[in-house]
Amino acid sequence: MTYKVGIVGVTGAVGQELIRLLRERQFPCEIVAMASARSAGKTVTYKDETWTVVEATPDAFAGLDIAIFSAGGDISRALCPEAAKRGCIAIDNSSAFRMDADVPLIVPEINPDAADAHKGIIANPNCTTAISLMGLYPLHKEFGLTRFIASSYQATSGAGVSGMQELENQSKAYIEGKDLVVDAFAHQIAFNLIPHIDSFLDSGFTKEEMKMLNEARKIMDLPELKVSCTCVRVPVFRAHSVSITAEFAKPVDVARARAVIAEFPGVDVVDDPANKVYPMPKDFSGKENCGVGRIRKDTAFDNGLSIWVVGDQLWKGAALNAVQIAELLQRKGLIG
Q1: What single DSSP character describes residue 289?
Q2: Rounded distance between C-alpha atoms, residue 218 and residue 196, angstroms
């Protein structure tokens, strides 16, 4: 069976990756390219296929089986319910519906059965949360996760094409001794770190940091899980990295930790410090699996482990996870 799949925000960085992954993973679908009115009529191309972009309006979802949204929270809030009303399952990459009690928040390797209760909208997690949990969840199943502290090193791809372009432009200008133009980020990103992603809350944390707490609790069904996170934008084009220190209910064992992570789908253990082998963004850009390394017993937590997780923000952190949700719906017979 061939499905009709709309991609809302098809002209953006994630939208382009969605087309690529739907085709490379051979999901049986006819793609409908969708975006705002200002992009309607433009064309997008992948290999020998070209699509003309249509405006994403409520009636445009009639006859579609799935619509994958990557156009921001405002568009999702306005149009996901409209898609669902017309019998189209909305898979949303924004934060608009993630904490809605009636909307499943899914990482297919972790909580696939949550899809069974969907009511027309399924949420994709925040990129940093999804990547982090690919390393943490297999450890939770083995040892019982109680809390973790994370520091993220987030690539400019998290801000879309404009973020990656700004890193490139500033790097060239810096080397050439020219003035640097700051636009996509709050400060210069080339040769710098910015400990600020999303807006600050009264608590001193940012919204991005609180997503790690709230979304991890929901995805793993751990409502009492304790999480503290600091999110940092780094001068890397693509692939996020996360340093995690976690405490567990049961005594931990490093060899067993490596084994359970290696057995978990979607993860590669890259952990040979003696030979300078560990996951790095350059090696996991454009890669479906996430990498986990630097696995060691922690010296601050009882029953603690420290790990380093790397994953492609545009793939497992966004487009790939959305396509995997579509594949999950197909396997479960939940489309149509």
Answers
A1: S
A2: 24
* Gap between the Cα atoms of 180 and 77, Å rounded: 36
Structure-token pair, residue 147:
């809390």
pLDDT confidence bin for 172, thresholds 50/70/90: very high
Is 127 tagged catalytic?
A: yes
The one catalytic residue in 127, 229, 231, 290 is: 127
Q: Which of 114, 113, 82 is nearest to 98 (CA)?
A: 114
Model pLDDT for residues 16-28, shown as the tens digit of each residue: 999 999 999 999 9
Question: Distance (Å, rounded) from C-alpha 94 to C-alpha 134?
Answer: 20
What residues have CB less than 8 Å from 117, skipping those under 6 apart? 104
| 329 contacts 89 by C-beta, under 8 angstroms | yes
Q: Helix H segments across the chain?
A: 13-24, 73-85, 127-143, 161-175, 207-220, 254-263, 281-284, 320-331
Q: Does the domain spanning 129-312 belong to CATH 3.30.360.10?
A: yes
The residue to which tokens 């690919």 are assigned? 134
CA distance 327 to 120: 16
Q: DSSP character for 27? A: -
Strand partners, 90: 67, 121
CATH class assigned to 3-125+318-331: alpha beta
Under the banding of pLDDT at 50, 70 and 90, the label for residue 184 is very high
Per domain, the residue ranges of the chain are 3-125+318-331, 129-312
Neighbours of 222 (CB within 10 A): 16
Residue 115 and residue 219: Cα distance in Å, rounded?
A: 12
DSSP state of 297: E
Sign of CA dihedral 258, 308, 105, 68: negative
- Asked if domains 3-125+318-331 and 129-312 share a fold, the reply is no
Q: Which of 118, 231, 240, 290 is catalytic?
A: 240
- Sequence-distant (6+) residues with CB within 8 A of 314 are 13, 14, 17, 157, 238
336 pLDDT exceeds 80?
A: no
Q: Which two tokens stand for residue 238?
A: 């693509």
